[in-house]
Amino acid sequence: MQIHFVTGKLAEQGLRNILESLAQEVGFEYTIQVMPITVAALMTPAWLASRLKIPPETNKLILPGYCDGDLEPLKEVTQLPIEVGPKDLRQLPGFFGQKQLKADFGEWDIEIIAEINHAPRLDIKSILAMAEDLRRSGANLIDVGCEPNGFWSDVGHCVAALKEEGHRVSIDSLNPDEIEMAVAAGAELVLSVNYSNRQHATDWGCEVVAIPDDIHDLNSLQDTIDYLSQRNVPLRIDPILEPIGFGFAASLQRYLDARERWPDAEMMMGIGNLTELTDVDSAGINFLLLAFCQELGIRSVLTTQVINWARSAVVECDIARRLVHYSQKHHVPPKKLSTQLVMLRDAKIVEHGIDQLQVMAAAIRDHNYRIFAESGTIHLLGGGRYWSAEDPFDLFDQLADSGAKNLTPSHAFYLGFEMCKALTALQLGKQYTQDEALDWGFLTQPEHDRHRLKRRKPTKD
Q1: 85 near 95, Cβ under 8 Å?
Q2: Distance separating the N- and C-terminal Cα atoms of the chain
Q3: Which pTM value belongs to this model?
Q4: Rounded distance, CA 121 to CA 144, Å?
Q5: Which of 67, 260, 402, 459 is the 20 to 30 Å CA partner of 139?
């Protein structure tokens, strides 16, 4: 069997990766025609008809999954059997009767450095608790953040305590005296080094992060890199990411310029400058910045989670670094790989439709209530009856006015709890399923049986 596959530019490499092994497993030969279009989903049979170049030995033509319109234009140019493949490339093995591919998101190559801000203001017990939480979230190094214009005499004690708990530690300071104490206690990375303190770096015996003296001048970074390199001080480069409104786009260009100037250098990006200083949920920002780092070969990021909207930044970075690594390795877009970072809205909503809900309501004879949230409305079914309203209070009034006999306090509380979830789902664009938690991505906390309506035994005084 010789199969001719048609695809777009974006999916080409992913298709080739899958077919390389799939063809051997199933037993077919194949050719691939990459059409002059980026997204295969935009193809139509009519558009394809004039562009097909099918090898003469071909036995079958397989089109991308979204190319499912009228196939007549194609049938006019070829007598071959035409099939429309799956919409998701990972489903291609199943399309041929093989086991579905399971995406492995365990690999990553971007290190997460998680900063404990203003560490001198905290006691050791609090620092250790925060460090353990950051490590469980995915941090590889714990960064001890010092005060910009102060001196912390206990920094060595702090670093030693963290090391004793098994943490890898970096020190965030420009003060040579603080740095010296931290390194002596076991800190393995210094953030940061420039003209002001680089002459001390040869005495520390550890890796440092080189930053420019003037963030708008990479030549000032070049001076520090040359100074450190000539003295065999291991280093990574950070051209400094600036917040939105203060040169954000230009700072991204600096990272591109730095990678071009120093193609083999280790690099770091301090992404907290964006997540902490932008009024927006941090997950999307973290993902985009990790994707930028993955493509540019920036192998470490510095982040923190002080502001409330970034309180889960380390977990977000941990998930993001695995997804972007998989995406780049397999040359596939990071779509339909994982919904862990799809938190505010759901990837897809399945609805029954009002007509079907009314049919279901007529068929239900028991007096248990079924709740649905569709088309901006909450729907309540039970005992052959159907009620609906946009406002849960209006819906509950309808139910109470209907003469329902089973609205005990506990039942009313249960309905209120579920309607609240339903209203939240409608407002945000999420799937509501009765007695199940709303899907908040990696933040989801599954509901337990205790949430469902049960008859409680009266307690004795």
Answers
A1: yes
A2: 79
A3: 0.79
A4: 11
A5: 260
